[in-house]
Amino acid sequence: MPSTRRNLPQLFSDARRWFDEGLLAALEAAGATPVSPTQVQLFAVLDDHGTTVSELARRMGVTRQTAHQAVHGLVGVGLLEQIPDPASARRRLIRRTEEGERAHHQAGAILERLEEQLAERISRQAVDALRAALETPWGPPPPPAS
To answer: Which residues, in sequence order, are CB contacts of 14 under 8 Å at separation 6+?
Structure first.
């Protein structure tokens, strides 16, 4: 009989989807500018001082084209802007606009509420243990088995 036990990456994916869906629903209910899950992920990996599209793509684990499309959509609705990179005349940095900063803080508050709701469902102790395990450095992935 095949195992029904799901692996950790599947469980992480489900957990992320739970937070993403809760965040997007709360933002929509608050009348915020509609964003996609990819755009939410982009906001999560964006540095406060600005980040290149290539670096955003690397952090998100997507192609540069996908990251560029997400950036373009968020620039179009006024949540992000492109500025020259002071370290390189050829590169541009992506950063939040004032409206983008407000949206980012709103999303952070929603995520805190979602975490509290999760603690009510599975216990504060379980959430704290999960957080501690995920905050512990894991080190680099192990080399392939020979």
So the answer is: 6
Query: What pLDDT does 1 receive?
Result: 61
Query: What is the model's pTM?
Result: 0.84
Contacts of 93 (CB under 8 A, 6+ apart): 49, 50, 51, 52, 82, 83, 84, 85
Asked if residues 113 and 22 have their Cβ atoms less than 8 Å apart, the reply is no
Per-chain mean pLDDT for the chain: 93
Give the model's pLDDT for residue 10: 95
DSSP one-letter code for 142: P
Find the farthest-apart pair of alpha carbons in the chain and give their distance in angstroms, rounded.
60
Bridge partners (DSSP) of residue 95 are 81
Phi, psi dihedral angles at 84 (to 5 degrees): -65, 145
Percent of the chain whose predicted confidence (pLDDT) is above 90:
84
Give the angle 101-20-108 at the CA atoms, nearest 5°. 30
Ordered domains of the chain (ranges, CATH): 18-132 (1.10.10.10)
